[in-house]
Predict the structure.
Amino acid sequence: MQPVLNIEDVKCVEVALTREGVSVSELMHRAGYAAAQEVAELDDVESVVVLTGLGNNGGDGWVAAEALKSRGMSVQVVCPIDPDELSGDLARQVAQSAVRAGVPIVVGPSRDELESLLLTADVVLDCMLGTGFHGDVRAPFDIWIDCVNSCGARVVSVDVPSGLSAQTGHASQACVIADMTVTMLSLKPGLLADDGRDVCGAIVVAPLAEQTERLVVDADPVAWRTDLADYLDVTPPRSAAVDKFTRGSVLVVGGSRRFPGAAIMAARAAARMGAGYVTLAMPASAAGVAQAHLLEIPVVALPEDMDGVLTSEARDVVLKLAERSSAVLVGPGMRVSGGTCALVSALLSVPVPLVIDADGLNSLSRLTNGGLPEFPEVIRRTAPLILTPHRGELGRLVSDGKDRPDSLVAQLDDSRKIVWSDGGSELVVVSKGNATACVGVERAVLPKPGPAALATAGAGDVLSGMLVSALAQHHGEDVDLTLLAAYVCEVHGYAGTIAAERVGSHAVMATDLIEVVGLAADAVDEHATFPEEPDEG
């Protein structure tokens, strides 16, 4: 796994490195050399334009420029002021060194001059604004960024694309769109979510020192980004000695007269993910519709009110079904009422692995008055529990919807409020968004996010069905629940990619995901087992 550090923690690692004998000057030189190395390894690069800022990020650019010139490349540096006027001692020194080495510079160019210069570049090295940036981009960098994004050269950003907050992933109106980002020491959360997903391109981490890995881990990463090989401990074993009972039994509770489809899709996804036996329990008026779509899955009709929503009278039937199941999912399409709140509360008391999604989460929010962290006893249990909120549902669980998380960092913070209030290793919050975080009491895991094709109604219902299926198949095993949840999210993302290839990136519907879940799971398992292609020849 790759550690992800908050910006303040990155600064602490830099301080720790200096205490171990790696000076700030050495770090800047190594950062510049790392950026230069990535540029030099690109194909067909003869000319490079380096855009520098006023701080240490600009200093990295001056070092890179001198290194690229020493390799025989044509390099020009663009600087907003004369190098001798830079206020930072270190940035000024490396700039003066580059000038003495013969690196040509352009100071404060007009827009036309910069556009003409960029026309000659094969690569633009973006060293304008670093990880300390937040807010709005000021002149001249807003103009420079516009010129970079309009030119045809490949763009490599150092540490973070200028204009992007490396902490929140929010971009200013002016933000570099990079083909590659060479980030120093560790990944940062803003590179992995929200606008960061659109502007960073390929991300390369430059550790800069042999002590870095140890110091980054000591800094207590805010999250860990998974590699496929990390899932080997939670991928299902390949064995022919199985039957439908050994592959686990799933109960899905949900649906309503108005929204029968969500529960139907969750049940189908659970079956496609490999559960040996799936049962769907839903309001009586929707049961006929469901049974027509589910030839292999039995449907149990439950008591309902006049609106076709489950009532508390369904409790006894559901609890009997739950006690005979390996894992239970409650919530998809259920709507929120006194009856559904009673049902969610009852299922929490049953010692069976449980996934709560959609209106199950909204019922849980009503049970705790939108302050779940203040009532940890509601979800404290001995059996595994997975909550799957999107950002809106997470906000309703933690702050009654008043403070909806607007970044990956905020998702992590809110999820930890729930997990840490409970304090048990059997609870995981799968916080869904354009980047998903699987948060347990000991760590947060970030699976590789799926494509934008997943941004479609019902995709979350499919994910919840897949999660309960995985729980059922691992029922009774000592499994890393956080990693298992991340594995399922990874399969879900692969399913989105496969479905987009089949029907087009804008045409994917949730049912398309269900049809390729098996193919996606096979692909993830294969890549986890054989992460590198064997050498040919």
Notes: The longest strand covers residues 277-283. The mean pLDDT is 94.
